[in-house]
């Protein structure tokens, strides 16, 4: 039985680099032709001579796709090439109609970027290399209290996507045991960004957070829908292991079919442990491409890759080089929206949210938009008072409801304004926090506003000081033995008196006022 990741990372270190392919799904047309961009559809219904690779069809670059790629690079601090060109990547596979892919080789549009990811303290056991040169380079802050890992981005280049192979009768959709292989060229020719990271990633959790952050950035930019399940965002991992304290890279394997963040984390974890156990048992890691099965949670050999493949790149003769001026790059940069890190800083600085709350909200595009809509529904003078309890509601009851329904915040039938209204009712003392949970459940059931629910059900909290004092005085006088015992030091009896007040007021007494009045009358 494989060991736990925690066991092997005491003596071994993983070296991970990722290749992240993101379809520019917001583009109206494919990369080099006018065929529409859409997911699904009847197989081979969205093709033309160009994306089908027919002789004589000439490619015309998609200007918008180039601009989206440059915008993506700018969002993570990449340098942008003033002169770039497309190249032909030559290889033979059934999903390649022309037997070559128009891609980029030595002159990508974007290069030398960096992404910083925060890792919680509960994952710091994965970082045992406290003092190595590599760790000093990659990690900021006190590792034992969580850390920031800086992950370099080598390049982002633009290419055309390939078709989709469908293996009929194979195991788990794979070619092994297949009785037939079909190909759908609807996807062929879609504009595809490929981001290549530096081998700076050391743990599966860092890899997961890196992809999650990039996905959030691309969603914020509006580049893609980034659906890993539908294949518009696909991640390949290159993994090797080495003894701690050494700097030489081990033999790497390439891991495919990680179509969710969980699959990415679990696939890398299995492969790290597999390589370590193989080496420790006297074996050698083979350079190969492996497939991850999310059902069995194991990796298996797809094909050997003993030598680096020679794709015989050469400049695409049918497309002129792309020249970008400083003015053009500045104009594209002006389109940058508020990015997730900037959003988090704003929530912390302007609203006083703690690091965790701000990070979770800023790390989810739909939830962040929902939160901002709620803030916009109240006056600026109330934001400081309501922002934290609103964040508590969004990250608590609302998120639980969204998870149970399997939807994102933008699909919620409860509006952000209604959620903020509910927070306001608690803040004003109209209802208690306990009542607010009941009101929220009724909002989910009925879709009614919180004010309507409170009024129709008579849930308004009793906050009249004079009326409450009369009720509480009568209760204290009716229980002289308990009152004297409390004054004699049995302070636990405070709960008894609070319970009596709530019973008398049918749970509608303002808890804060009840405690204040009881404390005064029993002193």
Description:
With 523 residues, the protein is α+β, with helices and mostly antiparallel strands. The protein has 3 domains: 327 residues, no CATH class; 117 residues, no CATH class; 57 residues, Arc Repressor Mutant, subunit A (Orthogonal Bundle). The chain contains 17 helices and 17 strands. Strands 1, 2, 6, 7, 8, 11, 12, 13, 14 and 15 form a 10-stranded mixed beta sheet that branches. A hairpin with a 6-residue loop joins strand 7 and strand 8. Helix 4 runs antiparallel to helix 5, helix 11 packs antiparallel against helix 12 and helix 16 packs across helix 17. The longest helix has 23 residues. It is elongated and about 95 Å long. The termini are far apart. The model has no long low-confidence stretch (mean pLDDT 89).
């Amino acid at each position: 039985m494989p060991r736990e990741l925690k066991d092997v990372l005491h003596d071994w270190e993983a070296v991970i680099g990722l290749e992240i392919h993101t379809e520019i799904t917001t583009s109206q047309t494919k990369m080099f032709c006018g065929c529409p961009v859409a997911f699904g559809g009847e197989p081979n219904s969205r093709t033309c001579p160009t994306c089908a690779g027919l002789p004589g069809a000439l490619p015309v670059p998609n200007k918008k796709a180039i601009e989206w790629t440059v915008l993506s690079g700018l969002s993570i601090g990449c340098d942008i090439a003033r002169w770039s060109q497309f190249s032909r990547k030559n290889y033979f596979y059934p999903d390649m109609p022309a037997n070559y892919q128009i891609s980029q080789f030595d002159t990508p549009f974007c290069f030398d970027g960096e992404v910083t990811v925060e890792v919680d303290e509960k994952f710091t056991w994965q970082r045992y290399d406290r003092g190595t040169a590599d760790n000093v380079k990659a990690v900021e802050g006190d590792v034992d209290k969580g850390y920031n890992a800086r992950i370099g981005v080598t390049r982002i280049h633009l290419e055309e996507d390939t078709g989709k192979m469908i293996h009929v009768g194979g195991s788990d959709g794979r070619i092994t045991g297949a009785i037939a292989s079909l190909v759908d060229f609807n996807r062929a020719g879609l504009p595809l960004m490929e981001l290549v990271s530096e081998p700076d990633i050391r743990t599966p959790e860092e890899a997961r957070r890196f992809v999650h952050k990039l996905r959030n950035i691309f969603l914020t930019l509006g580049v893609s829908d980034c659906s890993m399940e539908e294949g518009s965002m696909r991640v390949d991992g290159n993994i090797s292991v080495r003894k701690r304290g050494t700097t030489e890279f081990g033999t790497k394997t390439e891991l495919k079919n990680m179509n969710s963040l969980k699959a990415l984390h679990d696939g890398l974890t299995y492969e790290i442990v597999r390589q370590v156990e193989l080496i420790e048992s006297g074996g050698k890691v083979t350079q190969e491409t492996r497939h991850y099965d999310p059902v069995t949670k194991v990796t298996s050999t797809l094909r050997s890759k003993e030598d680096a493949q020679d794709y015989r790149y050469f400049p695409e003769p049918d497309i002129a080089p792309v020249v970008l001026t400083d003015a053009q790059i500045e104009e594209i940069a002006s389109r940058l929206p508020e990015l997730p890190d900037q959003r988090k800083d704003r929530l912390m600085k302007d609203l006083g949210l703690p690091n965790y709350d701000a990070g979770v909200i800023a790390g989810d595009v739909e939830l962040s938009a929902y939160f901002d809509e709620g803030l916009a529904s109240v006056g600026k003078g109330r934001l400081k008072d309501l922002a934290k309890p609103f964040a508590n509601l969004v990250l608590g009851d609302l998120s639980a409801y969204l998870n149970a329904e399997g939807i994102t915040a933008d699909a919620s039938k409860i509006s952000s304004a209604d959620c903020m209204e509910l927070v306001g009712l608690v803040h004003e003392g109209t209802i208690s926090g306990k009542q607010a949970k009941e009101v929220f459940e009724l909002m989910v059931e009925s879709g009614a506003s919180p004010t309507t629910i409170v009024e129709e059900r008579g849930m308004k909290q009793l906050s009249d000081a004079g009326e409450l004092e009369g009720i509480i005085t009568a209760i204290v006088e009716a229980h002289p033995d308990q009152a004297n015992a409390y004054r004699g030091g049995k302070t636990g009896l405070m709960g008894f008196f609070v319970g009596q007040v709530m019973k008398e007021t049918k749970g509608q007494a303002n808890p804060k006022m009840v405690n204040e009045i009881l404390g005064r009358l029993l002193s």
